[in-house]
Amino acid sequence: MFKFAPLGPQISVYEGNAHDSYVNEEEMDWDDDLVGNKTGIVAPGQTITSVTEFMRGHGTFADGDEVAATVAGTLQRVNKLLSVKPIRSRYVPEIGDLVVARIVEVQPKRWKVDANGRQDAVLMLSSVNLPGGIQRRKLESDELQMRAFFEEGDLLVAEVQAFFMDGAMSLHTRSLRYGKLRNGQLVTVPPILIKRLKSHFCALTCGVDVILGVNGYVWVCKHVKENEQVGEDGFNAESVYSNKNDYIDTSTRLAIIRVTNVVKVLAQYYVSITDVTINHAYDWVVETGHEPTDLLHEDVAEALIQAITIS
Amino acid sequence: MSSRVEILNAGGYRSDGRTQYELRSLEIILGDSSRPRTINLHDSASNPHPNAPDGSAIVGHGLTVVSARVFGPREPLLRREAIHDRAKLSVQVAMLPFSGGMAGRRRGRGDKRLLELGAAIESTFESVVQTGLYPRSQIDIVVEIHQQDGGTLQAAINSVTLALTDAGVAMYDQVVAVSAGLHSTAVLLDLTHHEENDMPHLTVAVMPRSGKVTLLNMEARLHVTRFEAVFKIACEAVTVIRDEMNSVISKRTTSLVASISDSAGPRNLRAGNEMDE
After folding, report:
1. Interchain proximity A270–B25, CB inside 8 Å
2. Is residue A102 part of a domain?
3. In chain B, N or C terminus with fewer CB closer than 10 Å?
4. B184 Cβ contact list (under 8 Å, min separation 6)
């Protein structure tokens, strides 16, 4: 909450220049010639620098000689390249990112997929693993039964393969780790909270698997044992494209809910979500003996955040 | 009715105790609007609901309260509406039935006045948002008027600016609006409903960085010789509102950056498999 009564009677003195930069002169000495407050945090329209030798990157634009921010976020400088990373935005894809996504539409030879980007992503029929051979070419019969692989509403894990001319992303699931998701539930978090990790498939200590999609979609599911994973030779469409959940016992279900709520709380307090933070928070929940649903109460959530950030 | 109340009394005060150039108290809530307005250590930054807006803000100018939510940039709901080289902006304005205002009339979705308000906001922001960065997508803006006490348009524009900022949509500048009116020869700023009824008034939306005016809305007649004075003072007042909006934005950005870096900081909370940057 924020209250403010800005103008007193003294406003009748109109001598100031309306176009002054609102960064105080004393605060301008941030980094070389960068104008920006000491924290490096900028708002849209704020002048970053008036030195012409800087290059402007994402989140900035050139206004005459000046470089100004177009989003609210943190200023980043790599040599002469200035960019502003927005603190909140939709997912901005990069090739090789692991994403969790949902099918929204089946089209000829392709699926339209919601991956939290600014446009729907595309999953081509040619970039999924087809039943039968490991790397077989698509046939006409595959085109006619695309819904046997993915239907509207199905969740899948995939990798960003390429971009189209308009910036839409193309996905692929040509790995045995990728494909349809089942035995779990989805949590959505702001994409900025998911850092790029070496592996986004995390087996937590509590016996639950988590897939941290870089696009902010997090999949929490029952643990799959290494030796039970569908192997190269044992690839069969039955299990990969199955719509049926395995049997999940009550304790696993509870663990899944606990992890889900932990992720929700972390996201709500804008804490980065990694396997380590989730494990840490999960341990705290178990130690303090809170029920999974208790986490959604504000006081418990706050205690959790306190515990994992000040330790 | 209103003529019995002095707009500006002999002491130079208005009916609500403000002076000529004094703005009403400004209340800004940036971010998740679904939560109750509690003073929180961490303002809740993210709403995990899948259909939650990408950005939202509530702006109150005195008793006028307007909220804005931004969805997108996202896939256009109707594919034929997609524009191949830029984003489409669509603004919907709703007046909540209890929002009151002495006009007292309920306005539904198709109301001409609301459509006009939406069109004004749309054309204001079309030139400010960097739509070229988001080809074939759509940015939906939903404005809801919660309480009315004059200056609805200014509150709507200010809240949309903040909501777009919160959604991380790239803009060349912010757009900041304020209303001003003329009472005989005295210029008054940030009018209440009462004052709006009694004098010619205008709403000015300015891009404070360049000083360019993106919107000027005047429904009454005002003599040319008087216009300039009103217009100039309104343009100056905009910078004060801009500073307040910026302080809220930077406060929120700072707190979000802090909570992200707190958890990723050197407190052995780094992910075991985190990549080296």
Report:
1. no
2. yes
3. C
4. none
